Amino acid sequence: MLGPTDEFPVHQTAAPIAWPGTSDRNFYDRSYFNAHDRTGEIFVITGIGYYPNLGVKDAFVLVNRGGTTHTAVHLSDAIDNDRLHQHVGGYRVEVSEPLRSLRITLDEIDGIAADLSFTGLFDALQEMPHVMRTGQRITLDAQRFAQLGSWQGHLVIDGEEIAVDPATWIGSRDRSWGIRPVGEPEPAGRPADPPFEGMWWTYIPMAFDDFQLVLIVQEAPDGFRSLNDCSRVWKDGRVEQLGWPRIAVDYRSGTRIPTGASIDMTDATGGPLHLDVSSLLAAPIHVGGGYGGDPDWTHGLWKGADFTERRTYDLADPAVAGRIPFGVIDHVGRAVLREADGTTREGWGLFEHGALGRHDPSGFADWLSVAP
Questions:
Q1: pLDDT in tens, 117-133
Q2: I want to staple 340 with a disulfide (CB 3.0 to 4.6 A). Which of 44, 98, 271, 275 is the partner?
Q3: CA-CA distance, 101 to 121, in Å (whole number)?
Q4: pLDDT band at residue 135, thresholds of 50, 70 and 90?
Q5: Cβ atoms within 10 A of the Cβ of 328, count?
């Protein structure tokens, strides 16, 4: 089970790198990326994951055009031990400079191809550990880092080549690893007591001229905050914590789809910061992206050797539209930050939000309630 990585002094256990330190079937090691040109006309979301205890690796690409056409490419294969050369079929991630730049390429699959290079605009930020339990069992125990950057290269969509200009194309990426539900469903065992009633999630990585801001908040149905992490990373590498954000999400009437959010924070001196975020385009990542109970694609699920497919969704189709509000949605995000001295700054990046099940502060009483 040796691989090229075993040549380097990176071991954490008395075992080859290919063998995780835990035998938990849900161990994973995954990257997520998004890219857009700030117009709200196109949004690209992609990722690659390794699941050693399931023997699987996979990748996906989502392209959303104007909020109506949502195209997914899926790839899956048996895992290999060469973690220095990340690839699934014709999908590759090449790390050019660790924690700074990388390149993603996708050989043409049913009319979709890509060659995209990411360059970090700021230092990668190590986020706080993220832990969740169901009863006494840990269901999520993950470490992640995030980074904002520019994109360069091109996309090909059904014969149309789209230039990706780093002057306008921007986005975020994250790397996470640990334990989270992946692969085939496990036997349920005794029902959870108390039962799972939902979660409220907000993740906002934004790039400004002088800094990147990364906000992560997760709340239980009663509003209890189980994860609170809000920082900005300045160009010189300083990391400034921004306190306990107070978030007011604006939902489209009759839905749980946000149009934006207003957020109050504090800087390192205790001065007030106010962030207004608006959505320019919504892309549900539980439609073809494999997140949150997606019926079409599940991360880590064995699909057979050299598996590829393309799926295209009409987001106005009632069969698709009906499930969009009840999962996590990624948005092309524009932000305006007002500093304590009144200075305003414009930022761009990701506005990710999911209001799943009951959330008392938002007025959602159960899984089916929506905004007035």
A1: 999 999 999 999 999 98
A2: 271
A3: 10
A4: confident
A5: 18
Cα–Cα distances in angstroms (integers) from residue 70 to residues 23, 35, 41, 215, 311, in the given order: 36, 15, 12, 27, 8
The count of residues in the chain is: 372
Identify the pLDDT of residue 86: 97
Q: 276 to each of 59, 74, 83, 159, 321, how far by Cα in Å?
A: 33, 35, 40, 38, 27
Residue type, 252: R
Q: What is the pLDDT of residues 25-47, one digit of tens each?
A: 999 999 999 999 999 999 999 99
Q: What is the DSSP letter of 86?
A: E
Number of domains in the chain: 1
| 368 inside domain | no
Q: How far apart are CA 44 and CA 65, in angstroms?
A: 9
CA–CA separation, 201 and 185 (whole Å): 23
Instruction: Give the tokens for residue 278.
Output: 């608006």
Token pair for 265: 């924070």
**Contact between residue 229 and residue 245 where contact means Cβ atoms under 8 Å apart:** no
Residue 69's Cβ-count burial label (10 Å; 0-12, 13-18, 19+) is middle
Domain that residue 152 falls in: 26-177+197-362
Please name the helix (run of DSSP H) or strand (run of DSSP E) that holds residue 105, with its range, or none.
strand 101-109
